[in-house]
Amino acid sequence: MELRRLGTTGEKISTIGMGTWKIGVYASLSERAKQVQALRRGIELGCNLIDTAEMYANGKSEEVVAEAVGDARKDVFIASKVSPENLHRDNVIEACARSLKRLGTSYIDLYQVHWPNPSVPIRETMAAMEELVRDGKIRYIGVSNFSVEQTDEAREALSKSELASNQVEYSLRDRTVEADILPYCEREKLTLIAYTPLARGNVPERMIPRAVCDKYGLTPIQVMLNWVTRSESTVAIPKSADVKHVEENASSVSVRLSDEEYRAIGRG
């Protein structure tokens, strides 16, 4: 598995991680077991980045992640997110404590602000995040769904830590971030964590030449992930609830397309 540096840290995370939105939602224990199995298979294949959130399935996603990780904690980089309604200082601290309990771990590798909340001063939230770093509860700080201006505010509010990442939607179907957020992350050495990189299964087959798939032995899904992670600043976290999908995702960056092929796909 290809690894990339997280922001300006020395941490290496997998270019293809595992997203867990809707994981933790299940109708039976056997369905839950399949979710656990999928995440474990991803870990085996080198997908060391698992992204979750207290918001996902009302915390049950974090519990499924905990079961999947088990004794492999040292081999997994766990990212979670605090909800926008919990961004006051005391709420951040309490939310983190609840996530730690559900995740069955003493620390979260990357703790992210899930969405900005204009009613809570970002300085207060970032101070709480730095307190968590100081106490060893989290290792790195990130944001999610932040504009360039909001990301700047968050960075300026940090006194001792560096902001590591911004998690935003990015795929061949939604390229909004290319206007400013992606160039900003590349310039400022922040990691862009692309969520929904497969556009919720809405694969734009017309944009993915069959010749490229045949040349590299990749499926259209794999080409989508390969394309969205063409920048060294970007990693992707496709949903990972099915073993076959995880295996397909994990091998999507075993080879790299040429710059001209990336450009051609981007032109559609």
Summarize the structure.
With 268 residues, the protein is of the alpha/beta class.
How many helix segments? 10
CATH homologous superfamily caption: NADP-dependent oxidoreductase domain
Number of domains: 1
Assembly classification = single chain
Low-pLDDT parts are: none
Rough shape? globular
If you compute it from the alpha carbons, what radius of gyration comes out, rounded to the nearest whole angstrom? Answer: 18 Å
If you consult CATH, what is the topology? TIM Barrel
Q: State the secondary-structure class.
A: alpha/beta
Measured as a percent range, the helix fraction is 25-40%
Largest sheet: 8 strands, parallel
Order of H and E elements: EEEHEHEHEHEHEHEHHEHH
Q: Would you state the CATH class?
A: Alpha Beta
The CATH architecture term is Alpha-Beta Barrel
Distance between the termini: 28 Å
- Record field, number of beta strands: 10
| Amount of beta strand | 15-25%
Question: Overview of this structure, please?
Answer:
The protein has 268 residues and is of the alpha/beta class. It has one domain: NADP-dependent oxidoreductase domain (TIM Barrel, Alpha-Beta Barrel). The chain is 39% helix and 17% strand. The protein has helices at residues 29-44, 60-69, 89-103, 122-134, 148-157, 181-188, 210-216, 220-228, 243-250, 259-267; strands at 3-5, 12-14, 18-19, 49-51, 77-82, 108-113, 138-144, 163-169, 191-195, 234-236. The protein has an 8-stranded parallel sheet with strand order 3-4-5-6-7-8-9-10, covered by helices on one side. The protein has a two-stranded antiparallel ribbon with strand order 1-2. Helix 2 (60-69) links the parallel strand 4 and strand 5 (77-82). Helix 1 packs across helix 2 (60-69). The two termini are 28 Å apart. 43% of the residues are buried.
